TrEMBL record:
Species this chain originates from: Rubellimicrobium mesophilum DSM 19309
One GO biological process term: carbohydrate transport
CDD domains: ABC_MalK_N
Name of the protein: ABC transporter domain-containing protein
GO cellular component: ATP-binding cassette (ABC) transporter complex, substrate-binding subunit-containing
Occurrences of domain ABC transporter (ranges): 8-238
Stored Pfam families: ABC_tran (PF00005), OB_MalK (PF17912)
Keywords: ATP-binding, Nucleotide-binding, Transport
GO molecular function: ABC-type transporter activity; ATP binding; ATP hydrolysis activity
Amino acid sequence: MLAPNTSVSIRDLTLQFGAVQVLQTLNLDIRDGEFLVLLGSSGCGKSTLLNCIAGLLEPTDGQIFIKGRNVTWLEPSERGIGMVFQSYALYPQMTVRGNLSFGLRNARVPKAEIESRVARAAKVLQIEPLLDRKPAALSGGQRQRVAIGRALVRDVDVFLFDEPLSNLDAKLRADLRVELKRLHHSLDNTMIYVTHDQVEAMTLADRIAIMRNGRIMQLGTPDEIYNRPQNRYVADFIGSPSMNFVEGHLERGTFHGADLQLALDGYRFGAPQVADRPAIIGIRPEHVATGPLVDSAPIRGEVTAELVEPMGSDTLVWAQLAGKPFRIRMDGQARVSPGDRLPIGIDPAKASLFDAKTEERL
């Protein structure tokens, strides 16, 4: 039984290459009009999953539904999808107009309809002045817009993006992120987007599926992923710099770690109801209080700055706590030098607590 208002549904999807299981009994429902990002490091299975949805790979087991239709064994052209790849793959001998209309001409769409769709896509993507240019006369960002436009003219229900911005420089990536967000708002189509870049994921997604070893480690909104990671892997993967971890033991609602004790009674993760056990506390660098805020923090201490990275809007300080690297994000105007003693404060309500054995959130 498919959930209502579901655009794409994955049921028990498995993919094996010989003895290697690339996707492991994966289940996922993507809502109508949702922007879903598949996020993970190289080899986690995110592009493989996208290629299964597109029909470019045949799953070993399981089913794929698009708009309620079982498309598991259908050809890509029969699935009602548009796909944008990492490479632009434009025909160099054709103009932008020719590239946009090529697939429609092959499908014998009426000429007036082709012109209408090309004009609409060009307007949405702001490439109308480029229609008579060839790809060699375009910048990287303009070429990627044309590649997106080629999918757009197909007038499909679901768009698939496989790391479309990874070949661009940092500024172009930021600019096109904004364009993609605007595009989604204007079209309201379902979009599935693969990336290893957490900034892209957090800024673009309605929901993020974080993948590892062919499994979904957590599915949630950017806010849920950031503030309530379900396990240590997700907590470590999201955030730059990543979360600080301190190992210790949970006993009667108090976390005991080397150089750190946190009384957790009354805080949101309900630690007093959790049995005593080895545990790990996670604290994001931006949640470590410094300066005047230290005085109001429930837990206070002091560390020695070892390395300072001025970032303009922020200053990143590297120190040690309990014999492990401990990162602190401070205001960009902070004046800190290596060797300085730095008072810090920690609010347990902003920390995450994990079981040391399973690494799952408590």
